[in-house]
């Protein structure tokens, strides 16, 4: 496996040139585009890794998987009255469908969907971003994970579209708390920094029917793993999720920090990091790394 990861790293690193580092969030513009990390955590607790796999990066929308987990635990199926489960052909920060769908976001992974979830969590936690940090610390075993306050503040200052989405949803009655409070917490959850190694280990419960194989904790019910992974497959890479399913065939979540999280059911979790992104906001080299691994190791949910 180590050999396989090293070879994949050598092959995909040059692809980073084809992408562009996100520049709409001030903290992300300064990240070195050459950074590259890969980690595969398997259900027996082993982690295979290469490159900058231990270096913390901004997890951005990968956090939406963990906020969805918290929301599923808190309210269960009630969640689906406020957030849809349909893929979207628009960009992750689009407002178009929100107006057409009376303020109900298409799915939990587009920004409006994640904002409704942040709103729901804000109703139940004094600081939902702390609840997210605690969950990641516990599941990864790394108690130093935290969010970067400067990155959160920088995003908040320019989060005009996210605030607009929140106000629009408020006008339809689908947003209960203060817009600034929730968008602030959302920017903080996106600004959590974590490494490929930590994210791969933290997400292992998704590959093991909801129970985290290292901590032994039942994080979510098996039925919820099925739902979360289905949503990752249909919407985890936004408007190109169909393409991602076609070429990779695994539940995947990307973030504009350049991270890619891929669940390999009954085997483990892979996390890749390379900051330059394609037009839809996913890491170019990261996605290719997951694809090469899935093909080489014959891992897909369809076989
Ligand atoms: N796709 C992403 O990673 C987007 C997250 C980012 N914080 C935003 O709200 O725009």
Automatic annotation (TrEMBL):
The answer on whether this UniProt entry bears the keyword Transmembrane reads no
Q: Which InterPro entries match?
A: Beta-lactam/transpept-like, Glutaminase
| Entry binding sites for substrate | 61, 111, 155, 162, 186, 238, 256
Using the UniProt record, name the top-level EC class of this enzyme in a single word: hydrolase
Q: How does it assemble?
A: Homotetramer.
Q: Which family does it belong to?
A: Belongs to the glutaminase family.
Q: What is this protein called?
A: Glutaminase
């Amino acid at each position: 496996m180590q050999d396989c990861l090293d070879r994949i790293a050598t092959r995909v690193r040059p692809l980073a040139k084809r992408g562009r580092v996100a520049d709409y969030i001030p903290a992300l513009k300064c990240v070195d585009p050459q950074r590259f990390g890969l980690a595969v955590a398997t259900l027996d607790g082993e982690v295979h890794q290469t490159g900058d796999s231990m270096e913390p990066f901004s997890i951005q929308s990968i956090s939406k998987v963990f906020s969805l987990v918290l929301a599923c635990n808190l309210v269960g199926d009630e969640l689906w009255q406020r957030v849809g489960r349909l893929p979207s052909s628009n960009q992750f920060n689009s407002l178009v469908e929100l107006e057409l769908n009376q303020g109900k976001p298409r799915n939990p992974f587009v920004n409006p969907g994640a904002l409704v979830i942040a709103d729901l969590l804000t109703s139940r936690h004094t600081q939902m971003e702390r609840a997210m940090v605690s969950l990641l610390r516990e599941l990864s075993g790394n108690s130093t994970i935290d969010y970067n306050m400067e990155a959160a503040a920088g995003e908040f200052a320019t989060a005009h579209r996210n605030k607009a989405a929140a106000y629009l949803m408020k006008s339809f009655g689908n947003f209960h708390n203060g817009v600034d409070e929730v968008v602030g917490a959302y920017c903080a959850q996106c600004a959590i920094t974590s490494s490929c190694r930590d994210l791969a280990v933290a997400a292992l419960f998704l590959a093991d029917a909801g129970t985290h194989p290292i901590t032994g904790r039942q994080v979510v019910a098996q039925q919820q793993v099925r739902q979360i992974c289905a949503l990752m497959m249909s919407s985890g890479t936004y408007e190109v999720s169909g393409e991602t399913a076609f070429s990779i065939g695994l539940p995947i979540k990307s973030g504009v920090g350049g991270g890619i999280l891929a669940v390999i059911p009954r085997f483990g979790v892979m996390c890749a990091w390379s900051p330059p992104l394609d037009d839809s906001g996913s890491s170019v080299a990261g996605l290719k790394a997951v694809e090469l691994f899935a093909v080489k190791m014959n891992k897909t949910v369809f076989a």
